[in-house]
Design goal:
By secondary structure, the protein is of the alpha/beta class. It has 2 domains: 262 residues, no CATH class; 154 residues, no CATH class. Helices cover 41% and strands 10% of the residues. It has a 6-stranded mixed sheet with strand order 3-4-2-6-7-8. Helix 11 packs across helix 13, helix 11 runs antiparallel to helix 14 and helix 14 packs across helix 17. The longest helix has 21 residues.
Length: 430
C-alpha cells in the first residue's frame, strides 16, 4: 500500500472519508465529480481528496489474475510505502488474490469510512455485490463496527429491472428474515434499505450512476453526521495518525480491525494500578475536606482525555469495574460539560478549590495530579508527579496558570482551596 500522509494536511478539520471500490465505472463517476480518473499501472490504494471536505480511499480493482508489484505513483508530498507479508505468490489462484484484496479493504480501510461506494458493473453484477455485503455482515457479528458506514450501491440504469429484487435477495442472503425479526415492507429501489440488527452498515442505498454525482455530497454529509454523532468524526490530524497506526498494525498482523479506543491510548496507556492508587488516595486524604467523588472523576477524565486526544464518548473509555456509580456518573458529567476545554485545565480548576488541603498531604508514592500513576519527580513543595503528567500535561498546567515559570516553582500555586464532601470509602466499590 502506498500513501502520502501529507494529503491530510490540506483537508478540512474533519474529513468525510469515503471507501470506493471499483474499476471502469468508478473512474467514470470520478470524472462526473471532477476528480482525475487516470490510473497508471498498479498504484495500490490511493488517498484522493475531493475539494476540502472529502477524502476518498480509492481501491482500484486490478487484474486479480496475477499479483503485480505496486508501482510508483505521482502523489502529493512524500510517498510512504508499507510492505505487507502475505501467503500469496504472483501467479497464484485469482480468487485468493481477490479475496486478499477485499479482506484488506474490510480490515484496514472499512473502519475509517462513513460512506462506502460499490459499483455493480465493476464488481460483476448484483450477485457478487450481495455476497460482499453478506460477508461483511457475518464478520460484523463476530467483531462489531464502532460506527457502521452507509453503503451506496451504484448501478447502471439498464440494470434497473434486476435491481428490483436486490433488497429481497440481500435480506435472504444475510438471513435477516429468520424467526424473531420484524417483517418488512418494500418501498422501492429509491428508498434506503435498513436491516434490523445489522451491525456492518447503517443502511444500503441503491443509486443509478447518472444520479450519483448529484447525490454524492448530501449522502456523504448525512453519513458523516451519523458517524460524528457516535463520537468517531476524527479530525484530519487524528485521522492521519490513526490510519498510520492501523496500517502498521495490519502489516504486522493482519486479521483484526483497529480498535480506536486502544489506538488513541498507545502513547498514554491506561494505568495498571488504578484501583490501588485511588484507594491509596482515599486513605491518605480521608480526613481532608474535599469532594472526593469529583476529584477522582476529574482525575479519570484527565487520564482518559489527555490534551490533543480525540474526544470519544465517555462510556467507551471507562471500565466501571471497581468504581462506584457516583464516580462513573460524575466522570461522564465532567466529560460532557467540558465543551472542548482541555481536561488538564478542567482538572486544575477543580484542584484550585483545595489549595490549603493539598498542601498538608504529601504522599511519597502518589502523583498528586493524576492520582493513578507512580510518581517519579519530586517538586520543591515535596509533592510528586509521574512522568506522564510532566510530559503530557506540563504545558497545559503552565498555560492554565498563565505564569511562564518552571513547574517546580508554581505547583503550589496551581492547587486551590475550598470545602467539599467528606471522604466516602464506598467510592471504590468492593
Amino acid at each position: 500500500m502506498a500513501a502520502s500522509y501529507s494529503v491530510f494536511d490540506c483537508q478540512a478539520f474533519q474529513p468525510r472519508v469515503v471507501l470506493s471500490i471499483g474499476g471502469i465505472e468508478k473512474r467514470r463517476f470520478y470524472r462526473r465529480i471532477n476528480l482525475n480518473d487516470a490510473v497508471d499501472g498498479n498504484p495500490g490504494v490511493l488517498l484522493r481528496p475531493v475539494q476540502l471536505a472529502t477524502l476518498i480511499l480509492d481501491c482500484e480493482l486490478h487484474n486479480h489474475n496475477r499479483l503485480d508489484v505496486v508501482q510508483q505513483y505521482l502523489s502529493r508530498g512524500e510517498e510512504v510505502m508499507h510492505s505487507l507479508q502475505v501467503n500469496l505468490y504472483r501467479h497464484g489462484p485469482s480468487h485468493k488474490i481477490a479475496q486478499y484484496a477485499f479482506d484488506m479493504y474490510w480490515q484496514l480501510l472499512y473502519p475509517f469510512a462513513s460512506t462506502v461506494l460499490l459499483f455493480i458493473d465493476d464488481l460483476g453484477g448484483v450477485g457478487p455485490v450481495i455476497e460482499i455485503l453478506a460477508l461483511w455482515a457475518r464478520r460484523a457479528r463476530l467483531s462489531s463496527i464502532a460506527a457502521p458506514p452507509r453503503i451506496l450501491v451504484l448501478y447502471h440504469w439498464r440494470n434497473r429491472t434486476e435491481m428490483d429484487s436486490f433488497e429481497s435477495r440481500l435480506r435472504s442472503r444475510i438471513m435477516c428474515t429468520v424467526s424473531g425479526t420484524q417483517p418488512y415492507s418494500r418501498t422501492g429501489i429509491t428508498s434506503p434499505i435498513y436491516l434490523q440488527g445489522e451491525m456492518a452498515f447503517e443502511s444500503v442505498q441503491l443509486i443509478p450512476t447518472w444520479k450519483a454525482a448529484s447525490e454524492f455530497p448530501s449522502q456523504t454529509e448525512e453519513s458523516f453526521a451519523a458517524r460524528d454523532a457516535a463520537g468517531y468524526g476524527f479530525s484530519s490530524d487524528h485521522l492521519k495518525r490513526l490510519l498510520q497506526t492501523a496500517i502498521l498494525q495490519y502489516s504486522q498482523s493482519s486479521g483484526q480491525q483497529i480498535d480506536f479506543v486502544q489506538a488513541v491510548r498507545v502513547c498514554n496507556p491506561p494505568p495498571t494500578q488504578l484501583t490501588e492508587k485511588l484507594i491509596q488516595f482515599l486513605s491518605t486524604t480521608k480526613d481532608a475536606e474535599m469532594d472526593h467523588v469529583a476529584v477522582i472523576a476529574s482525575a479519570l477524565d484527565l487520564d482518559a482525555h489527555p490534551p490533543g486526544m480525540h474526544f470519544s464518548q465517555a462510556e467507551s473509555l471507562l471500565n466501571k469495574d471497581g468504581l462506584s456509580d457516583q464516580v462513573c456518573k460524575k466522570f461522564t458529567q465532567f466529560s460532557l460539560e467540558r465543551q472542548g476545554v482541555s481536561s488538564a485545565h478542567a482538572h486544575l480548576r477543580l484542584l484550585r478549590k483545595y489549595q490549603a488541603t493539598w498542601r498538608d498531604y504529601v504522599e511519597g508514592n502518589l502523583c498528586f495530579v493524576c492520582l493513578v500513576r507512580p510518581p517519579s519527580t519530586t517538586l520543591d513543595c515535596h509533592h510528586r508527579l509521574c512522568d506522564a503528567c510532566v510530559m503530557i500535561y506540563g504545558s497545559q498546567v503552565q498555560s492554565a496558570i498563565g505564569l511562564p515559570v518552571p513547574l517546580q516553582e508554581h505547583f503550589d500555586l496551581v492547587i486551590g482551596s475550598g470545602i467539599g464532601a467528606s471522604p466516602d470509602p464506598s467510592l471504590i466499590a468492593s
